[in-house]
Structures are given as C-alpha cells and as structure tokens.
Amino acid sequence: MKKIKVLVLSLFVFLFTSVFALATENVKTVSADAALGNLVDGNARFVGEKYLHDHISADYRKELAKGQHPFAVIVTCSDSRVSPELIFDQGLGDLFVIRTAGEVVDELEIGSIEYAVEHLGAKLVVVLGHESCGAVSAAVNGGEMPKNIASIVSQIKPAVIKAKGQKGNIIDNAIVNNVNLVVDKINNNSDVLKEAKDVKVVGAVYSLSNSKVEFLKK
After folding, report:
1. pTM
2. How many Å apart are CA 197 and CA 186, to the nearest integer?
3. Are 213 and 88 in contact (CB under 8 A)?
4. Burial, 120: exposed, middle or buried (Cβ in 10 Å; 0-12, 13-18, 19+)?
5. Do residues 139 and 117 lie in contact, with contact meaning Cβ atoms separated by under 8 Å?
6. Residue 180, Cβ density class (10 Å: 0-12 exposed, 13-18 middle, ≥19 buried)
7. What Å distances lie between residue 137 and 74, 127, 142, CA to CA?
8. Angle at 134 between CA 110 and CA 207, to 5 degrees
9. If 0-12 CB within 10 Å is exposed, 13-18 middle and 19+ buried, where does residue 209 land?
10. Residue that wins the pLDDT comparison between 197 and 6
C-alpha cells in the first residue's frame, strides 16, 4: 500500500512538472538587447512604411486570451500623435504601454512597470519622450494652470531648469532632460528593478517631423 502511495505521488509530481515545463517552454523571454533591436527594426519599418501588421489576426487574439508576454515596457506621453504600437510597428500583446502627460511617473506608474517586469517577464523599459511635447512646453512657459496639471508640470520643472543652462533650443533640451530624469527616477525608486536580472531602462525621443525614434546615450 505504501509503495502504491509513493508511486501515485511520484506520478503526480512528474505530471505537474511536465505541464509546468511545457507551459514555461512556450514563453520565450526576450533579452533587453534583443527587445531593443525589435524596436529599432520596427521603427525603421514604420519610417519606411513597410509595415508587418504582425500579431493582429483573429487566431493570435485567441492565443492572447490565454495570457500576455510583452517583450518591452514603453513609458510615454499621452499625446495622440505618439502611439508606441504604431511607431514601433508592433501588434497586440507585444508592448506593455504606460502613458501619462509628459511621461511623468509616480508610484502607480512605477508599480505598473514592476508588474510587467516581475510577472510578465519584460526585460526592457523604454521612457519615450517626443518632439513638441505640450507638457514640457507648459513647464517652460509657466503661468497659471489648474492644480492637477500643475502637479504634472512641477515634475518636469527640474528638466527645464537644467535646460536653461544648456546651449540650443530650451524646449528640445528640456524634452531630453525630462526623459533622462524619468529614467533615473524609475531606476532609483524601484527595488524590483534593482533586484531584477538583465533588465535595462533606456530613454528615447520620437520625432514628429520624421517619425524616427532616437535612443539616448547617457
């Protein structure tokens, strides 16, 4: 009787580990560098109008109903002209997108990033600013504004202050500075990302004029 119980238990463990292994086998983690390459290639297709329109079919949508495994997190502005899935030529389930005016982040946004990294397996986080950002322009111009909008602008102000001491267009410089400040804020305020292996947080700026995304080097 004891041998039968041991046999049944062994069979249960075998079946459980086999199913688990099969499930995890189907989830291929994309490295940060590979994810970055996917985004660079996708933006090149977008610029050249050679879209793949990948991952939008009915069959693929059925697969997505079973779970999501985005290969990158995109933290970007709410501007209607900046749609990550389009400018990177990606489909449903490819990107975990977080959008706020001026791509500012607080606990809610950083928590969302942590969820995508810890539970969905994303290895790359991109903070994406863009040309002619209204939130950054508001921070540069100053003046009276509603309190909730003012709270957004207050987070961008340090980028504007730094831009005032830089050569070139103050708004363009403030846009880049703001992206870098958000990258730093994410890195400095997330224990999950600090402990995660092989996760990268990078900055980028999207040009409305030529549709190109420039990844920043700090």
Report:
1. 0.86
2. 16
3. yes
4. middle
5. no
6. middle
7. 22, 18, 8
8. 85
9. exposed
10. 197
Q: Which residue has the tokens 């708004």?
A: 171
- Is residue 59 within 8 A of residue 99, CB to CB? The reply is no
Helices 134-141, 170-188: inter-axial angle, 10-degree rounding:
110
- Report the Cα–Cα distance between both ends of the chain, in Å, rounded: 67
Q: For residues 171 and 131, give the distance between their C-alpha atoms in angstroms, rounded to a whole number.
A: 9
Question: What single letter denotes the amino acid at residue 157?
Answer: K
Question: Would you state the structure tokens that stand for residue 93, as one six-digit string?
Answer: 């389930």
Confidence of residue 217 (pLDDT cuts 50, 70, 90): confident
Phi, psi of 215 (to 5 degrees): -85, 135
CA 121, distance to chain mean position in Å, is 12
Pinpoint the alpha helices (H) of the chain.
Answer: 2-25, 32-47, 58-64, 84-87, 107-118, 134-141, 147-163, 170-188, 191-195
Taking only Cα atoms into account, the Rg of the chain, rounded to an integer number of angstroms, comes to: 21
Tokens standing for residue 135: 């939130």
Q: Which phi and psi (to 5°) does residue 214 adopt?
A: -105, 120
At residue 11, the pLDDT reads 41
Answer whether residue 7 shows pLDDT above 60. Answer: no
Strands 72-76 and 95-99: parallel
